[in-house]
């Protein structure tokens, strides 16, 4: 039974956002109880609404990043619309924006200006490359930032670099914006003051590149692209069985001994100088992988995993997206819920942060464009006649 509220209950967030990075951050806030009011363009809204129609007619990115929010469609280029947003921000705890560099400042919605006017406000600017420097005004889409940050250079096979299969730069920036808001809320609870928060996609992904970055700066060369293999640990790769690939990872020489004795059936390899240490196994990776592959090849994937588990060796299946959707661990832990949307209920995962002594995270509806405009404007005290006039003028939708 829950004994505490969701941690962000009572927090109001206003956000002028699009695509993935900022929407992903504010969705985390909504999941944990914050009220999130999403400002969208009347003529189509967040452009992520149009990325695809894979989620039963809705865009999969939008479904992923926008549950639990209220959609208010306002034209920020119209002074009347901008005045309404300023009024919303004046009553909010947090403001988040990821407009093109310089656009928020031209509207007076940048973090510095807003925090100067509202000392209690936490205002977050999410950008591609930061507010200053030679890249400040470059367009910064996820794949481009993956390339600029070097992630693509260390991902893929020796022959072919590839981008991450998920928008890693957007996710990284979104999570740092989310944690930045949480930190700023803690500070405001101590000092009574909010303040600006800045997060860039490049800074965020550069932080995630810490291992190859330090390896390259201090070791003389970045880790090589090795496909599913680990660049500096062996064996750590995918190996074929009779009905699919199995991945395993040996993290230290004690585990190698167990693998050699209990899975490979070759106990002599535990003390063989060519295999006994990780350094030796990496140097002789081909022989190491051949020994593992020979032992697993006659087995089914289930047999191989059972043998590895019994020996205490970390292992996994190479699952497809469809297999993730039916993963037995997610099912056993009751991690799936249904979220309301304009096309009916959609299956979605509970967020990863769990508070056992609080209610479940909010899994509220995915809004249609402008679904909450009238209600939010009524809360601001805008008369019905003015709302009608603004809608007829195309300022709201």
Q: What string, H for helix and E for strand, traces the elements in order?
A: EHEHEHEHHEHHEHHEEHHHHEHHEEHH
Low-confidence stretches: none
What portion of residues is helical? 25-40%
Strand content: 5-15%
The computed structural class is alpha/beta
Q: How many strands in all?
A: 11
Structure notes:
- This protein is an alpha/beta fold.
- The chain has 17 helices and 11 strands.
- The chain has a 6-stranded parallel beta sheet with strand order 3-2-1-4-5-6, sandwiched between helices. A 3-stranded antiparallel beta sheet has the order 7-8-9, covered by helices on one side.
- Helix 2 links the parallel strand 2 and strand 3.
- The longest helix is centred in the middle third of the chain and has 24 residues.
- The chain is elongated, with a radius of gyration of 25 Å.
- The model has no long low-confidence stretch (mean pLDDT 95).
